[in-house]
Design goal:
lipoprotein; Rossmann fold; ATP binding; AAA+_ATPase; alpha/beta
Length: 230
């Protein structure tokens, strides 16, 4: 019996994104095509203002596009109503940003449990998974600390655990180590990469760090509104 062929986690087809400015329409994405397959970790590089964040926001169903299609786990999400887009985003995606955006009044454990609670997971089951994720990232002794009691690298590891909590098909990461010093950045990215692979997720990672980009499966550069594979 042949193995089941899974659809791409993400497929962008002829994606266009433009912004209205005083000088006129500024088109930052000019027909972008991209496929991210299950389990792949893909880097997205390019200078500030090149459109990396716009591409991530479109892929993450956070912004509308002016043309093209966005497919997540085989489903065309381009014209879904808002409620269905929100449900698909919650089911299929996890997000990691440059700044961790942890809730300061919650412990590390409950910050990771929170997305599961929102998804309807029972309290104890959510905390058990949160504890397992934090332990896998070397934070077993920091689970009951609040974010203000953690270092920058520890906070970002909690944010990565939170992004993985609902077992997303795709992680979208925007400069996930950009706020850390070089040594901590390398350490945290190693944990990010291992955790993503261990969980079976794919990832699309925007980064300025070429050393980190070279450690991913494929690297794409945004040039003049289009993607070029390095």
């Amino acid at each position: 019996m042949s193995d089941e062929v899974r659809p791409p986690v993400l497929r962008l087809t002829q994606l266009r994104r433009a912004y209205h400015t005083r000088a006129g329409e500024l088109e930052v994405l000019k027909g972008v095509d991209l496929v991210v397959n299950p389990g792949e970790i893909v880097a997205l590089i390019g200078p500030s203002g090149s459109g990396k964040s716009s591409l991530l926001h479109a892929a993450g169903l956070l912004e509308a596009v002016q043309g093209g299609t966005v497919e997540l786990t085989g489903q065309d999400a381009t014209s879904l109503p808002d409620a269905a887009r929100t449900a698909l985003r919650r089911q299929a995606l996890g997000f990691v940003y440059q700044f961790h955006h942890l809730l300061p009044e919650f412990s590390a454990l409950d910050n990771v449990a929170l997305p599961q609670w929102i998804g309807g997971v029972a309290t104890e089951a959510a905390r058990a998974r949160a504890g397992a994720l934090l332990s896998s990232m070397g934070l077993q002794d920091r689970q009951h600390h609040q974010p203000g009691q953690l270092s920058g690298g520890e906070q970002q590891r909690v944010a990565i655990a939170r992004a993985l909590a609902n077992k997303p098909a795709l992680l979208i990461a925007d400069e996930p180590t950009g706020n850390l010093d070089p040594a901590t950045s390398s350490f945290v990215f190693d944990i990010f990469r291992k955790a993503t692979r261990d969980e079976g997720s794919a990832a699309l990672v925007a980064t300025h760090n070429l050393d980190l980009a070279r450690q991913m499966d494929r690297v794409f550069r945004i040039e003049s509104g289009r993607l070029v594979e390095d």
